[in-house]
Design goal:
This protein is an alpha+beta fold. The chain has helices spanning 11-23, 30-37, 48-58, 61-66, 69-73, 80-105, 112-123, 160-170, 190-205, 229-237, 239-247, and strands at residues 131-136, 142-148, 174-180, 209-216, 221-223. The radius of gyration is 26 Å and the shape is elongated.
Length: 248
């Protein structure tokens, strides 16, 4: 009688799982991503249960990848090789995040030339209007930005309450407003002026200076600051002057 060769019952599942990931990388849940990541270091064994256990033990995917190798090894089924693989992956993520954060934060928006260059990458190739509010520190370096897109060719507005929350969180000194005109024409509209006045009023209340509103077209850009239009916006939306008018 021929000796039976042990069949890897997980091989078919793994192949299907990998194919599914290749077809839709963004469709995987946290435990499925971890399950897939464990394949190279755990052969011929179901990694699904261990992925669930790790996420439950450390409170989520972030906790798993920030855990120390010794902490990981305290989980049943995790040896040195598996612990080192998970911890090294987590440290790699950390390094990449640090580099990305540093690169973004060092982007300066000190003048129109710098701002236009930095903003171009966000708006390139868009067929609909997109609004961006960039919050800056005292040296005009990017702290964070908020994006708004209504999915149409014209007419997009920012959420003023969300902007106010971001200002409270990041405590910026300056801000820049920017949006694109897919038509290619960079002439500001009455709606653009009105949106700029509203944002300037909100930011002024929080002690933040709106330095510019830049409109980007296909081959050109318009700056409220360079053209002097920003002075008109500030005059019309100065909160102190608005309150004075109300008192009068």
């Amino acid at each position: 009688m021929k000796e039976k060769v042990p069949r890897d019952i997980h091989k078919g599942h793994r192949e299907r799982f990998i194919e599914r990931f290749i077809e839709n990388p963004g469709g995987f849940s946290d435990h499925e991503l971890l399950e897939l990541l464990l394949y190279p270091v755990i052969a011929r064994k179901d990694t699904n249960a261990l992925a669930h256990t790790l996420i439950r033990q450390f409170g989520g995917l972030d906790g798993v990848f920030s855990a120390s190798p010794k902490a990981l090894m305290s989980v049943d089924g995790v040896g040195k090789r598996v612990a080192a693989h998970i911890a090294a992956t987590g440290r790699t993520f950390d390094r990449l995040r640090e580099k990305e954060s540093a690169a973004k934060k060092e982007k300066r928006f000190y003048n129109f030339s710098e701002s236009r260059r930095n903003l171009a990458e966000y708006f390139e190739g868009l067929a609909q209007e997109k609004l961006m509010i960039v919050l800056l520190d005292g040296k005009h370096r990017r702290l964070t930005h908020l994006e708004y897109d209504d999915g149409t060719e014209t007419g997009v507005n920012g959420d003023l309450s969300e902007i106010a929350r971001a200002v409270a969180l990041y405590k910026p000194r300056f801000a820049i407003m920017a949006h694109n005109h897919p038509s290619g024409l960079c002439i500001p509209s009455e709606e653009d002026d009105f949106a700029t006045k509203k944002l300037n009023a909100v930011l002024s209340v929080h002690g933040v200076q709106l330095t510019d509103h830049i409109i980007l077209g296909r081959d050109e850009a318009y700056s409220y600051y360079v053209t002097g239009r920003m002075d008109y916006i500030r005059e019309c939306s100065d909160p102190d002057k608005l309150f004075d008018r109300i008192r009068d």
